[in-house]
Amino acid sequence: MTISLVATEEERNGIKFKNLHNEQLVQGTTLVKRGFAHMQKHGVIMDVTTVEQAQIAEDAGAVAVMVLDKLPYDVRKAGGVARTASIKVIEEIMNEITIPLMAKCRIGHISEAKILEVIGVDMIDESEVLTPADEENHIWKWDYTTPFVNGAKNLGEALRRIEEGSSMIRTKGEPGTGNIAEAVRHIKQVNNDIRKLRSVYFDKDEQELIKFSRELKVSYSLIKETAKLSRLPVVNFAAGGISTPADAALVMNLGCDGVFVGSGIFKAEDPEQRAKSVVLATTYYDDPTIVMEAQKLVDEKKSLLGLDTKSLELRMQERGPMI
Amino acid sequence: MSNIKIGVLGIQGDIEENILSIAEALKNLNLQGTVESVRYSESIAELDGLILPGGESTVIGNLLSIQGNIFQTIKKKITEGMPVLGTCAGLIMLSKRTYDKVVGETKQKLFGVLDVVIERNAFGRQHESFEVDLDIPILGKELFRGIFIRSPIINNVGESVNILTKLNDKIVAVKQNNIIGTSFHPELSTDRRLHELFIKDSVEFSKN
Asked: Which of A72, A89, B132, B181 is disulfide-compatible with A175, CB 3.0–4.6 A?
């Protein structure tokens, strides 16, 4: 269950050297970027759109907030083009809370990402919740000092994002639906893919192993590293459709390192209680008594009603570049 | 040789990284012992040493006060002399007072056992996070790679507090009897000397 923090460090634009009198500090290294994601482990990252929501999230024990213009549920309702959040809102929230702040940029939108880096958000989510800006390419994330998180539905997507410089992976799920089914599908897909990879690796069948590299369109070295670790080489969170404490406990039990909650909290009618209870269930996911206590704090009548993922007009998980 | 029992507070943060660091450090020292994640008052009562890992101090403090009497148990054990190592968020939890560089005074829950004042997020936001070589004399001549992630710094140290190292003029590691606190993350580097120092203290404590 170890995670490789010591990746081979090549010449990367995101690495910066800074002199502090006699000391030379190095910023934006793989270790510093992935290390940030490690500090989020076992925590809950909450989607927020206002200062008030960010304050509620912090008080409830969120490990970070993700700032958006609209919650995914409202993105669906509004239609049109979803873009990165207002700079003013991001700055306001930054000045009010002490926990890390993340924000989303459109897939492939290097300029929105640079803007977020300049403001100083702690992590950038290159997200399919927003309308993709480039249908062919993701961002080359090694060019940034700020770490990125990306979504994935399967092992191939996850490793391709890591190879582009992503420091953290989350499942795509189907955001804004209040329905956990797609997130569960993606977590199990990644787990099953890794299980296959692992058995080939420990059988020392290199010819079979390189076929994974060709099929998943990922370098052989990253395939081998993943097989050896028998898990994703970066921190892996669940996202997309988590609405209740029990949902959070479910995805943690499937082996995720933490959870993102989007519309599930602030689209419910009891956001304060719900936020607290999801945090509690995430930490004690394997203790059914405490998860029950957490679940008791929420009223099912106040949950986001949710959407059937089979009859959606917009499937966010399908958006963006195929490779 | 006795079997020492080390716990890593398993509420939130880089718990597994610390468990791994302790396992490696025990091996380096050729010591028998166990290390596990602890989240209940009963398991904390039996420990010879406790690590408060990196993570978010507000979250850890919050959950500690919700769930049973873990908070009181930990505080009592530290006061009785159980060695504790706090890295980053863990250091903040141990301090007697903490404020944030941008937001100012925070109302978070602290153990208040380490006689220092902490400035949170003192080096700035994540894109200002860094690696640097540190000179920590208590660990020997070889430099120690410090990984600083949205790190705090240590101010106003009390008389009983030993300064282990500074980065320029900023204090980033201290030891006050059984308590070690670092601004950086030794569990993210490959150097186990700080964890070994903490284990040696735990071995002494286990003899009492």
From this structure: A72
